[in-house]
Amino acid sequence: MKEKSRSASIAAARRPTLNDARRPTLNIDHLPLPYVEIDARGIITRANRATLALHHPDQGELIGRSGWDLMAIDEKDRSSAAFLALMASDEEPPVICRSIFDRSGRFRTYEMHRTMIRTSGGKPAGIRMICVDVTERKNALEEAQRACQWLESATRSLADAMILTDALGVIRSVNPAAERLSGWSADELMGMAIDEILPVQARPCSGSVLDLEVMLQLPLSGAATVMTREGYQVKVQISTSPILDKNTGSVSGVAAILRRADSFA
C-alpha cells in the first residue's frame, strides 16, 4: 500500500501544471472563428476546422501552402512584402484586411487579428491570427461612400444655393452656388449660424418670420434676403424643409434652397 501511495505521489508530481513547458497546446478546433498559424516564410502550419470549412476544395491542401496563394492577385505581392518586413522589424502586427478565396467560390474580405509567434529566445517565428468575415460590412461601407459621392456630385451641380444645418441651426454643408451667393467660402460657412446669412428681420416668409424654430417644424417657401459677406442684401426665393432622421423620424436639421430673385426676371 505504501509503495502504491508513493507511486501515485510521484505521478502527481510529474503531472504538467499551467506553468509547465509541457502543458497541452490550445485546442484550436474549439474556436468558432477561423484560426491560422503561419511560419516566418509565410507557410501555413496550422489551421482549425473553421478555417478548413471555409477553404475552397479546388485549391488543394491548405497546410503547407503559402498564405499568399489564397489571396486576390492584386494583394499577393503587397501582402508578402509587408509580412517579410514585419518579420524583420520584430514589431507586433497590426490588424489588416485581406480578400481571401473561400468555399463560396468568391473572394470575401476578412479582418485578420494577429499576434507574433516567437521562439524561446523571443525572436519572431511566425504569426497566429483569427479571421473575421467583414465582407458585408465592407460592402455596406463602400455603398455608403458611393452614395455620399453621388450626393456630393448632385449638390455641386445645382444652380441654386443649398444650405444644410443641424438642429441648432449651425451650417454643416453648402454647395458652390451657396458660396457664390453669400461671398463666403465653404470652409468659412461651416460652423456659422444660418441667422448670420439670413437675419431674422430680413426673412418674412409665407406671412411668418422664418426663424429656426419655424423652419424645424414644417416646410416653408417665400421671399427672403441674404446678407452677403460684404454686407450687401440679395433678394432670393427660399424653400426650407426639416431634415428628418430616417430611423427615428426626429428632426435633425434644416435644408434650405435659395435662388436669386433676379434669376426669375
List keywords for this structure.
about 260 residues, alpha+beta, Beta-Lactamase, 2 domains, five-stranded antiparallel β-sheet, about 30% helix, about 30% strand
Question: In terms of topology, how is this protein built?
Answer:
Elements: H1 2-14, E1 35-39, E2 44-47, H2 49-54, H3 73-89, E3 96-101, E4 107-118, E5 124-133, H4 135-157, E6 161-166, E7 171-174, H5 176-182, H6 186-189, E8 204-205, E9 208-209, H7 212-215, E10 220-227, E11 233-244, E12 251-260
Antiparallel strand pairs: 1-2, 1-5, 3-4, 4-5, 6-7, 6-12, 8-9, 10-11, 11-12
Task: Provide a concise account of the structure shown.
The chain has 265 residues and is an alpha+beta fold. The chain has helices at residues 2-14, 49-54, 73-89, 135-157, 176-182, 186-189, 212-215, and strands at residues 35-39, 44-47, 96-101, 107-118, 124-133, 161-166, 171-174, 204-205, 208-209, 220-227, 233-244, 251-260. The strands form three sheets. The chain has a five-stranded antiparallel sheet, sandwiched between helices. The protein has a five-stranded antiparallel sheet with strand order 7-6-12-11-10.
Characterise this structure.
- The chain is of the alpha+beta class.
- It folds into 2 domains: 111 residues, PAS domain (Beta-Lactamase, 2-Layer Sandwich); 107 residues, Beta-Lactamase.
- 28% of the residues lie in helices and 31% in strands.
- It is built from 7 helices and 12 strands.
- The longest helix has 23 residues.
- The radius of gyration is 32 Å and the shape is elongated.
- The N and C termini lie far apart (115 Å).
